[in-house]
Amino acid sequence: METKIWKADELPAAVRAIKRGGLVAFPTETVYGLGADAFNEQAVGKVYAAKGRPSDNPLIVHVADPEQVERFAKKNTWSDKLMQAFWPGPLTMILPVQPGALSATVTGGLDTVAVRMPDNDLTRALIRDADTPLVGPSANTSGRPSPTIAQHVYHDLHGKISGILDGGSTRIGVESTVIDLSTDVPTVLRPGKITPEAIADVLGVPVEAGQHAVKADEVPKAPGMKYRHYAPDKDVYMVERDEWTQAIIWAQSQLAPVGLMLTNDLILEHQLAGMDFVWSLGPDAQSAAAKLFAGLRFFDEKPDVQTILVAKMPETSENAAYNNRLNKAAGGQDVSSLIAD
Ligand code: TXA
Ligand code: MG
Hints:
By secondary structure, the protein is α/β, with parallel strands linked by helices. Helices cover 31% and strands 16% of the residues.
């Protein structure tokens, strides 16, 4: 199959592909999604095959407007408030599914479903014109960093999907916050741009933000948690601000080049400007989130580079999504294990 890259004015071709039961990658404000008609079980099945994704890991259903949610999920007062406050935007809500509305291919057989209205006009037009909500996991091969430009999607999935709607680079760069609203206490299952504090402010009730690890044989509450995500092919280590001096000495003592990913202030402080194997994360934590996955992919493509050192951000609620994705890419490895004597 030849994978097309469609610009905004070629939207009708993407709509036709979805209506035929094909796969179309779409841009959002977070990362690119891999779209298929959520009501077409066969099309949804192809999403798992194209990604190489375990089929018990359920999908997010993307809608063009809050009304569309009623076709397959049950809203409640919490979801109404959060939709009002944050949609369109990077907040995914877990709600009870309308019995019989969706196949188990979408929900992983759970009685809940994840829903989100992306903040991207082109993609909402795709959903509206195809007249169906779209499932949309991140449009990467399972286990690879999520795609933030159309070319990342093409790299992973060309030949396996009908096409990619090219909306340029995504603004936020890490996936949406996932909040479970099907429980007694609203619970953040995956940190994202929208913080637990911001959600609690809107709901006027406490929000659970704890992360809990799920064993492989457990039927997971947050199914995504048991899979290793965002893993590039190289060894990744997290570096705290005050570890960079020693980390750079270590890197320079290696025979093979070491990839360094850090913010501009650190690049200046350590006189790394203009050097090879340095990937700028931009001025601050926000730009770092937007550039994290692209940087990991950049060094993945460099055959000489075996090791990548990446700046951790201060542990604030706003930075939780960045640090969470970095921690997963690093498999929890900290540079202190390399530089300790
Ligand atoms: O920003 C995003 O959310 C992107 C863009 C494309 O919208 N999508 C995305 O999808 O990250 P995906 O499939 O990579 O992540 C969906 C997460 C997974 O961790 C999955 O386990 C969880 O949501 N999830 C889906 N349905 C669920 C459910 N019913 N209960 C609990 N977790 C669920
Ligand atoms: Mg993903």
